[in-house]
Request: fold
Amino acid sequence: MEKTTLKLYNTLSGKVEEFVPLEEGVVRLYTCGPTVYDYAHIGNFRSYVAEDLLKRFLKFLGYKVIHVMNITDVDDKTIKGAREEGVTLREFTRKYEKAFFEDIDTLKLDRADYYPRATEHIPDMIKIIQGLLEKGHAYIKEGSVYFRISSFPEYGKLSKIKPEELKAGVRVEADEYTKEDVRDFALWKAKKEGEPSWPSPFGEGRPGWHIECSAMSMKYLGETLDIHAGGVDNIFPHHENEIAQSEAYTGKPFVRYWFHVQHLIVDGEKMSKSRGNFYTLRDLLAMGFSPRAIRYLLLTTHYRKTLNFTFEALYQATTSLKRITDFLYELETRKFPEGETKEAAEKIEECRRNFTAALADDLNISGGMAAIFELIRWGNRAMEEGKLLRGDAQRARNLLYDLDRVLAVLPERVVEELPEEIMRMIKEREEARKRKDYATADRIRDELFKRGIILEDTKEGTRWKKIKE
Ligand code: AMP
Ligand code: ZN
Reply:
């Protein structure tokens, strides 16, 4: 396969750029992970699924991807949650961390190589804070350490927010009135009564949220990462602060490509816990939607467009996905004449080319899906006309599974093994039909229907289909 160059929108430059990693063939990717104080909602998963598409496409292009996703297991929300439940911070956060891992497997998110927990990297954070203090980029006030924004002239380069404009709008936490400048942000927070804390050279306390991502990304990926990803709400202040503290500390560029995913909204508002307008993955599964349809929905809106969540869209996703799996089912179960055709080989190659070219263009997923549906339209027609041969069907099927390394929406097997009892019933019915005992045959057919299996009698014998997954 010829080498494909990926073009990606970089928030830092505000442009679509050619992606070239620092080390040839290897991509160092950091994605901001969950704060484990509750179940993640599908807004969060919109970001994770878009990042997963990026990662899987990079792998599809042949890159080795080293992926780190942090687990925020200490912050105001986790501390509050643990206190309310009367359990330790660790007990509280592990419960939601476990749920998170279950959810990412359900949604087939390719697992990261490292999931560092903030509480297990406090010494790494302290080291950076100390370095920043030594270089004059930070100062201590009443046991807390703050980053001095005026010492980093490039502050605002990611979000394009000018430091002067910041002053007016910044909300100052009640315990942060001692800062030199309202824009400065906490690297280390002095211990408060009843809160978990860790010892440090600047006194007992706990780290701020931003320093966590700088420390853990650089620890596992080095001082300059290729791609850093998150939702657009992370651009400011989180990622802006990460740049300031990392670059002030190392003197090197922190991230080469910033990848930000637009929000998932409901009724015009961002889906979020604080607004109470959220669905968790578990909510949707309990309503009977399949994980693959949910993934399909989250995947198929371009990552830089707002995704408006509606149940109608989720039904539509279910239907679109079914068109693909129905096509696969035909490819796998029909009896095709032997041989293969040049036309099919060309059509299939064209689908691969168009799919790859679309995704290489800043992950144009609509273009990618259009290439697949074009193949399906063509393939269904060719089957109806009896023009598709066995080799063609095999080739088309192999392509769909190959592209599914990127999409991860297909079932492991379209034609699955049926339970033995059902196989026996199908056989009994066929024997009844041979005996012309149609009453028995129909009774078995109805029984199978009740169990979600429909039968189709063809020239080549009886085929079965599942009504519902
Ligand atoms: P949090 O647990 O709030 O830190 O969020 C985890 C990730 O989900 C971050 O990358 C957020 O930017 C992202 N996120 C939160 N809400 C939404 C939303 N409604 N749509 C898309 N991404 C979101
Ligand atoms: Zn982060």
